[in-house]
Design goal:
The protein is α/β, with parallel strands linked by helices. The protein is globular, with a radius of gyration of 18 Å. Bound molecules: NADP nicotinamide-adenine-dinucleotide phosphate.
Length: 344
């Protein structure tokens, strides 16, 4: 059965591939097609990892439609360069730049304090930053780098910004996950690879599963307050994300991608990169689409609702991301690790 993640822990009814919601868009839909005819004037977006790749393209597309975008990056220089590139194509872009290192809890706390001092509200928080398949390493606070950056950093940032999100208009939280969630479930007993042998892809997979479980728990907790949360697989896009990949890791990625496509009945099974404009389309869709209002907590891919058991390279997902008990336990563990109870 195809199951779509719904709000408040309930599953939405099965959705067939021909559902009208899924019909208009596909894997080559671009940000411009998503935003065609949409005026975002007055909407306030915060985008992490805005200095590169999908975050930079999301910023450009949103700004081109009138949005006010706070671009967050750990490198002010890269952020300035990315903002300059956005302004080249959108001269009247309404941008603000902020510095935050998601691998450092003190940096996140300092940014959140600054943000709350200067702003009352956020309409959309797009948790887009990420690291992939890096060598074994630790964040400033001693967490394994991928779990620490991709999940825990965004967990704390989101929690600290929730008061502003609750003050937003029709607010949303968009968390970038990945088809790589299908590589591994989270390990709540050894989240930092203290006893498990480190594997760069396994760690990335865990962190991207954590992004979805976090989304589900956000949907459960904040849905009743009017906040929508979505998890997104953007597709495969050539960006700086691949900076740590050597030949062996690339071969592993290609073999896994082919195997999971075949397992899901996608016989062609070939890997096709998207343009960055098509890659950022799903997260921009998640951030803006009115047709998603009844799908709080959903996993999205190729600008469509997720489908259990379908190819994760498209909009398919693996069943363990539906584990609400694990989502709750991940939340509790995350609070313990960041040393802060999030009051929501
Ligand atoms: N590209 C794909 O094929 C693909 C597929 C599935 C999922 N995704 C997801 O999409 C998201 C965006 O990836 P992308 O392809 O656009 O990659 P990217 O071009 O490498 O951009 C990642 C962004 O995250 C930032 N970042 C990394 N570590 C950070 C930290 N500690 N603190 C703050 N910012 C940090 C990077 O800053 P620096 O430039 O300073 O490192 C950069 O701005 C990621 O979450 C990724 O997992 C991408």
């Amino acid at each position: 059965m195809n199951v779509v993640i719904g709000s408040d822990g309930m599953f939405c009814p099965p959705i067939e591939l021909k559902d009208p919601l899924m019909a208009p868009y596909g894997n080559d839909t671009t940000t411009e097609e998503i935003l065609d005819g949409i005026d975002l004037t007055g909407r306030r977006f915060v985008v992490t990892g805005a200095s590169s790749g999908l975050g930079a393209e999301s910023t450009r597309a949103l700004a081109a439609h009138g949005a006010f975008v706070t671009m967050l990056a750990r490198s002010p220089e890269k952020n300035e360069a990315a903002a300059a590139a956005v302004r080249e194509s959108v001269p009247d872009a309404r941008l603000e730049l902020g510095t935050v290192d998601l691998a450092d809890l003190s940096s996140i706390r300092a940014f959140a304090d600054r943000y709350r001092r200067d702003h009352d509200a956020i309409d959309v928080l797009m948790n887009n930053a990420g690291v992939m398949a890096c060598p074994f390493g630790h964040t400033a606070d001693g967490f394994e780098m991928q779990f620490g950056t991709n999940h825990l950093g965004h967990f704390l940032l989101t929690g600290l910004l929730v008061p502003a999100i609750l003050a937003g208009t029709e607010p949303r939280i968009v968390n970038l996950s990945s088809a790589a969630h299908s590589i591994s479930d989270v390990d709540l007993d050894d989240p930092n690879f203290e006893t498990t042998e480190y594997d760069p892809w396994g760690s990335y997979g865990r962190s991207k599963t954590a992004n979805v479980l976090f989304t589900r728990e956000l949907a459960r907790r904040l849905g009743p307050e009017g906040v929508l949360s979505f998890a997104v697989h953007p597709g495969g896009i050539m960006t700086n994300l691949g900076r740590h990949l050597d030949e062996e890791l690339i071969n592993q990625m290609m073999e896994r991608s082919k195997a999971r496509a075949e397992a899901a009945g996608n016989a062609a099974g070939e890997f096709r990169f998207k343009s960055v404009e098509a890659g950022a389309a799903s997260q921009v869709w998640a951030a803006t689409a009115p047709e998603l209002v009844d799908h709080n907590g959903a996993y999205l891919g190729d600008c469509q609702l997720g489908v259990e058991g379908a190819d994760p390279g498209g909009n398919g997902f693996v069943s363990y991301i539906l584990d609400d008990d694990k989502a709750r336990r991940l939340w509790t563990l995350s609070e313990q690790l960041v040393g802060q109870t999030l009051d929501l």
